[in-house]
Amino acid sequence: MKRLELKIASGVSQISEVEKFIDSFTTEFSLGQRLYGQIDLSIIEAVNNAILFGNKRDESKFVTIVATLDETIFYVSIEDEGEGFDYKNYPVDPTLPENIEKTSGRGIYLMSILSDKMIYEKGGSKVTLYFNL
Questions:
Q1: What is the mean pLDDT of residues 74-94?
Q2: Strand 73-79 to strand 62-70: parallel, antiparallel, or no bridges (unpaired)?
Q3: CB 40 within 8 A of CB 114
Q4: Strand locations in 80-116, DSSP E?
Q5: How many CB atoms lie under 10 A from the CB of residue 23?
Q6: C-alpha to C-alpha distance for 128 and 133, rounded to whole angstroms
Q7: To bridge 125 with a disulfide, which of 10, 46, 71, 84 should be the other Cys (CB 3.0-4.6 Å)?
Q8: Is the pLDDT of residue 91 over 70?
Q9: What is the rounded distance in angstroms from the CA atom of residue 54 to the CA atom of residue 86?
């Protein structure tokens, strides 16, 4: 099993560090271009949610990203220091008529369709995205 970790302050300017981290582990783990787009977009959406909604842009709070390669599966956990949210009752599909006018909710939808499995923990302050290799 291989594992890499990044911890960033909750500033939107930190997204460039996350992109560098994604580049480093996709190379280190030899994940290839097939998965790169799915992984990149999913993680960026999760980190944005953690910064904006979880930690509410409080730069004294951190977002931790842990990327793990375990034989036939790659997974990444994104955890913030916020209170979490009610992920069980969150509208997942922004394309439904009742959600079309909403200004948020697309990130979670993208994460759910781009990953093979998505699991929330710690009351919604941690999400793990799984990608089959």
A1: 88
A2: antiparallel
A3: no
A4: none
A5: 12
A6: 16
A7: 84
A8: no
A9: 12
DSSP state of 113: H
What is the average per-residue pLDDT within 47-60? 96
Tens of pLDDT, residue by residue over 92-120, are: 677 777 777 777 778 898 999 999 999 99
The DSSP-derived string for 6-21 is: EEEES-GGGHHHHHHH
pLDDT at 66: 98
Between 3.30.565.10, 2.60.120.10, 3.40.50.300, 3.90.1150.10, what CATH number should domain 2-132 receive? 3.30.565.10
One-letter identity of residue 85: F
Give the separation between CA 9 and CA 90, rounded to whole angstroms.
26
pTM of the model as a whole: 0.92
* Mean of per-residue pLDDT scores for the chain: 92
Q: Please answer whether residues 78 and 14 qualify as being in contact, where contact means their C-beta atoms are separated by less than 8 angstroms.
A: no
Is residue 109 within 8 A of residue 48, CB to CB? The reply is no
Dihedral class, residue 96 (left if φ above 0, else alpha if ψ from -120 to 50, else beta): beta
